[in-house]
Amino acid sequence: MKHPFQAIASNAEYVFAVSKNSIHAYRIHSDSLELATSWTDETDQRTLLKEQQDQKIKEGNLKKTPKIPVPGPGAPPIYNFIRTVNVFERYVVLTVDMDKSVVVFELTNDESVWRLLKRQRFPKRPDSVTMIDDHTVLMGDKFGDVYAMDVSSPPQTEAFKPVLGHVSMLTSVCSATNNGRQYVISGDRDEHIRVTNYPKTFVIDKWLFGHKEFVSSLTVPKKYGNVLVSGGGDDYFCVWDWTDGTLKQKIEYGKQIENYFKEGILSPEVCPLIFKEGALVELCITLIVSHEDFLVVTIEGCNIALIYKFEQELVFSHYLAVDEPILSLTITPAGKIVVGTDSEKLYLRSLVGEDQTAVLIPENLTEISENSPKMPLYATSHLRKGAMF
Q1: 3-class DSSP assignment, residue 50
Q2: How many domains does the chain have?
Q3: CATH of the domain at 336
Q4: Is residue 328 a contact partner of residue 336, using CB atoms and an 8 Å limit?
Q5: Where are the WD-type repeats located (predicted)?
Q6: How many CB atoms within 10 Å of residue 247?
Q7: Does residue 186 lie within any of the structural domains?
Q8: Quick one: which of 43, 1, 86 has its CA closest to 366?
Q9: Rounded to the nearest 10 degrees, how much is the dihedral formed by the CA atoms of 57, 59, 61, 64?
């Protein structure tokens, strides 16, 4: 049994695809991907617990050696997996669940592809990252805090101080620039979007209110630097001019999904997660990705990606349908979409045009036993208040 690709990112040369606790770098060809290198996170839970024990002994005058804690019956499973992957100009940045760390690779210009630059642990599990300049990673955690980390400095042992925080679970963070000033834009489970000055993060520039449910994805298109697109647990997503706080559009994608169900394009057999007793349940957006004039939206548990185009305003262009629910998606600088699904497959095709979709089945997906659970592949809907975990 093989684990699917749960996260994907890309640059001009490579697609970086994550399968459980391994990441694979593939060279991009016109209709195929060629494996260049791989890295597997071998962090062991027991080793981490032993390190915690040693740290307690080092910090205090203990009368006896503390026991290494062992999860008891009924304890939630601990997954060793890579949660996210992001590619910036010189770096590939991962968030890893096992030891709550951010792992940074520096890209090289040779056959090795990358070199491991830094592994930094944090007190809470990292969830979303962005880069604010050419050496500073901003990391948001599930607790609601955002930390700044210099990728060129050695790993820090003392506690980090957050540069900003939400009073709710932080779900997405991105960076933007306006009139030479830098800003951090962050979203949370409580429907809030916050625009914060950087590095003076004690100055909140504005709040953007337009969502009724959680916010799960934020993106500022490179070509349209004053535009912010946000989506989450609502049946619509929002298009903002974040520089003045104006809500420009609310696009109701839920109606499009309903039409695809009526037309037979979407079915309970292919997408059981978004159906209950033959009817669509509440939908949520997992990912919003932009490229040039286009924007791609994915919905949790759905095998269709919705593609929109910036004209006078954002309008629907077309859709991309695959054979299984979409887990991850990236768009290369050349305009190729790479889609990871709840299967062993990757799909490769052009964002626009009539070329055929290439179905790829890499041989190096992570093997898992039948008794070994997959990482939580459909966790976004659990952000909904009152959801059953």
Answers
A1: helix
A2: 1
A3: 2.130.10.10
A4: no
A5: 208-250
A6: 14
A7: yes
A8: 1
A9: -20
